[in-house]
Amino acid sequence: MDFRLSTEETALREAVEEFAREKVAPVAGDLYERGEFPYKLVAQLGEMGIFGACFDDKYGGAGGDYFMLCLALEELGRVDSSLAITVEAAVSLGAMPIYRFGTDEQKQRWLPKLCRGEALAAFGLTEPDGGSDAGATKTRAVLDGDEWVINGGKCFITNAGTDITEFVTVTAVTGTKPDGHKEISTIIVPRDTPGFTVGPKYSKVGWSSSDTRELFFDDCRVPAANLLGERGRGYAQFLRILDEGRIAIAALATGLAQGCVDESIRYAKERHAFGHPIGDFQAIQFAIADMELRAHTARLGYYDAAARMRADAPFKRQASIAKLHASNAAVDNSRAATQIFGGYGFMNETPVARMWRDSKILEIGEGTSEIQRMLIARDLGVPS
After folding, report:
1. What are 280-337's pLDDT values in tens digits?
2. Residue ranges of the Acyl-CoA oxidase/dehydrogenase middle domain (predicted)?
3. pLDDT > 80? residue 207
4. What pLDDT score does 227 carry?
5. What Å distances lie between residue 154 and 131, 158, 212, 219, CA to CA?
């Protein structure tokens, strides 16, 4: 496969790289320390067309594809994972289910504002007793006349409580299948719906300026027309969304891994010890070389998965490989960068301290590393 970027892809990557360097980097640390959502940066990215990069222009998108989104996420992840995950969740988890499975009326109603970054949407799958077992859904929705009545709760939901969040798409048990298994469907719940409550922001180890909350549904009523896709296909729909999302998370993780390389190179030139820049010492040189190796191979992994997705070829295994390897690379590189920075790497004022804190969730969110290994083995035909 030829992984060289097209003229359009190069222009997008360079535009986001410049934005991240000039607009995001100067304010990311302060936003992070205050736990403040980056509304201004989100609006600017919306004006640049990043939120609509992979959607059809008839819905206000830029007419690109998923790989374009991934390029943008990598460049944002090099500087600030909080902003990168805000974009990833808004597009891959928030808007994409509407784009993939919605009626034309649903697309026309919701997608234009989402593509412009004027509104955000969230993806309500995980539950307190579920975790990696996404099929353990307890939230229920009962059809009462022309309304769904929803009861239950969700947790760890990104972009659920911002001032510009328009709706959350949730999975809920809507009945029982003939084989006795749960019938799980997906339903769009607008934020101002009575009975829908958004909890306070979590206090998190990392991603401090992204919005993550718990959701509660207490006799929450929405129109029957808010069903997203075919009834009973909600679980399958979100498995597809998660397959795609793993490529996006791999791109974000690659950006974090590369950001650690960038910061370490800069510091190795500036920091002196024993009368020399620390970059003169072989131990530092080898550490940075290993970091670059991990970032480079992580990039190849998500490029490959995205290329297969673009070609409408099977990509489930490659998406899991990309996500598993890139998240490992992010954790390993952030740990190595912190070591290179020494005591300064333990200070929150340095970007590598944020990267170290942000990296761990990449091995957990949108499918843990253990889940990725299970999916890879299963796709290889290993008995399960």
Report:
1. 999 999 999 999 999 999 999 999 999 999 999 999 999 999 999 999 999 999 999 9
2. 122-220
3. yes
4. 98
5. 10, 11, 11, 15
Q: State yes or no: pLDDT of 384 exceeds 80.
A: no
pLDDT at 295: 98
Q: How far apart are CA 13 and CA 6, in angstroms?
A: 10
| Beta carbons of 68 and 9 less than 8 angstroms apart | yes
- pLDDT beyond 90 at 131: no
At 141-160, the pLDDT tens digits run 999 999 999 999 999 999 99
> Which member of 88, 166, 363, 366 is catalytic?
366
CA distances from 91 to 51, 53, 207, 310 (A): 6, 9, 17, 17
Tokens of 325: 């390897």
Tell me how far apart the alpha carbons of residues 18 and 76 are, in angstroms, rounded to a whole number.
10
- What domains can be seen in the chain, in order of their start residue? 7-120 (1.10.540.10), 122-231 (2.40.110.10), 236-379 (1.20.140.10)
Question: Average pLDDT, stretch 92-113?
Answer: 97
Q: Measure the CA angle with vertex 197, ends 193 and 202; round to 5°.
A: 140
The stretch 198-217 carries a mean pLDDT of 96
Burial track 27-59 (b if 16+ CB lie within 10 A, e otherwise): bbbebbeeeebbeebbeebbebbbbbbbbeeeb
The structure's pTM equals 0.96
Sign, CA torsion 125/128/134/139: negative
